[in-house]
Amino acid sequence: MKLGELNLPGGVIAHQHADAAAQAEALALQVAHALSSAIAERGRALLLVSGGRSPVALFERLAREALPWQRVLVGLVDERRVAPSHADSNEALVRRHLLRGAASAACCVGLYRTAASHAQAAELAEAAYAGLPPADVLLLGMGEDGHSASLFPGSPALDQALSADCPRRVLPMRAPSAPVERLSLTLPVLAAARSSLLAIQGSLKLAVLARALQPGAAEELPVRALLRAPLQIHWCP
């Protein structure tokens, strides 16, 4: 499977990079340009990012961009229900690798809230994200099971989260293969982004992406719901 062989929907663009470093460089420049344009037009910019190991190089490269970071708000597309001091926290990852140096002037709004239950944690996160405008830039990743954000195949709330009419911004989610409770933004919030970037690496994920681009249910491969314009896919071997 080659990137050029993918059957891309109209308005979706794919980029191939030599390696992870080149991918991070290209993504950082594209994100910085989009944030700068948003600030020039609207005075502020909202960047929604994913966690995991893959975006670390991008975060560290993006942090070196000369932006008016005090006008940038950084939010998360998903989070494990762990405190920001926990090693598995996406918020901690963002603060450690992106909000450093000049970029530490950006404001970060995490999804984690102390709560008595998973459902209540999602309600508190919903309230925290209720006033946010559409994202100027949305950074997504994809797992080998076809999940993106914390929209996992087989998760009990997946149908609701993938509904175009879902009234919620944040829902409690679970990864069937892992015990940690999660919070995820829903499809209407993700789909409203002005610019969406999907970063994937390796031949296995490219094969999953090729499957997701074929007709089928989004519940089988949730990333399917996000493969629409305006989207740019960045892949490296």
How many helix segments?
7
**Largest beta sheet, briefly?**
7 strands, parallel
**What helical percentage do the residues reach?**
25-40%
- Distance between termini? 11 Å
Rough shape? Answer: globular
CATH fold-type name of the domain at 12-141: Rossmann fold
Q: What is the mean pLDDT? A: 96
- Read across the widest sheet, the strand sequence of neighbours is 1-10-9-6-2-3-5
Number of strands: 10
Supply the CATH architecture of the domain at 12-141.
3-Layer(aba) Sandwich
Radius of gyration: 17 Å
Order of helices and strands: EHEHEEHEHEHEEHEHE
Q: What is the top-level CATH class of the domain at 12-141?
A: Alpha Beta
Structural class: alpha/beta
Instruction: Report the β-strand fraction as a percent range.
Output: 15-25%
Poorly predicted runs: none
Please describe what this structure looks like.
This protein is of the alpha/beta class and 237 residues long. Among the domains are: 12-141, Rossmann fold (3-Layer(aba) Sandwich); 142-157 and 206-223, no CATH class. It is 29% helix and 20% strand. The protein is built from seven helices and ten strands. The protein has helices at 20-42, 56-62, 90-97, 118-129, 158-161, 187-191, 203-212, and strands at residues 12-16, 45-49, 72-76, 78-80, 107-109, 137-140, 170-174, 181-185, 196-201, 231-236. The strands form two sheets. The chain has a seven-stranded parallel β-sheet with strand order 1-10-9-6-2-3-5, with helices on both faces. Strand 7 and strand 8 (181-185) form a beta hairpin. Helix 1 packs across helix 2. It starts with 11 loop residues before the first strand and ends with a strand. The model has no long low-confidence stretch (mean pLDDT 96).
